[in-house]
């Protein structure tokens, strides 16, 4: 099986360690992963902002770059959802029958947890991460892809982990791409609720499958000096005793910041 890594422009620009962790994890499980250098943006930001026809060149590029692969894996539920749910629609808008056919026959794009559980058939990936972790299911992975309990199944099998429940886990964090910029006040209020729930969980680390949401929540966690760290699912699953994620502090026996919800809302 020829597997390609679709890193996404967000990860490539701001969180390259997630891409490296994804490759390290897949190679540890016996996969041969290729990284097509010609890949670019999937067009999600343009599409969501109303510039749907401007997505056409990006969809064309995507179908050309990944055409020869059996599977495409990405550490991003939102970009996987864009490709699977909307690339076909954009191709139809173009009026290009060849592009429409290519988009329909393109290799399936899998969010990382989908690929591990559904294609490789594994939940125990040999990871070790001795920290208290809570998991935030991002909106696209939860509502569009329907990844369900796959990430939690993978996390439960990690040795040493203390996986705790996140209250109101299915509530949006308020990022939503350009939504956070166009509706900043609403976005911050939603994130304040999410942060209050993260603190209520008592977790040392907040995990998710999308770095965009983690960046949004992590910004508030950092400004409040909570000590809670954010980490992509791929980096936890790639972690071993010999090679933990960079800058991961030793397990803490002390309590985390328990700033009350009212204090969070005062941001």
List keywords for this structure.
2 domains; 267 residues; 48% helix; Glutathione S-transferase Yfyf (Class Pi), Chain A, domain 2; four-stranded parallel sheet; alpha/beta; disordered C terminus; Cys_rich_dom
Write the layout of secondary structure elements.
Layout: E1 3-5, H1 9-14, H2 16-28, E2 33-34, H3 44-48, H4 56-65, E3 71-74, H5 77-94, H6 97-105, E4 109-111, H7 112-119, E5 132-135, H8 139-145, H9 150-156, E6 162-164, H10 179-182, H11 184-201, E7 205-208, H12 211-223, E8 229-232, H13 233-238, H14 261-265
Parallel strand pairs: 1-2, 1-3, 3-4, 5-6, 5-7, 7-8
Region (Disordered): 238-267
Organism: Streptomyces xantholiticus
Domain Cysteine-rich: 3-83, 133-217
Q: What class, by secondary structure content? A: alpha/beta
Which term fits the overall shape?
A: globular
Name of the CATH architecture of the largest domain? Up-down Bundle
Q: What is the rounded Rg?
A: 19 Å
Portion in beta strands: 5-15%
Organism: Streptomyces xantholiticus
Protein name: (Fe-S)-binding protein
InterPro entries: Cys_rich_dom
Region (Disordered): 238-267
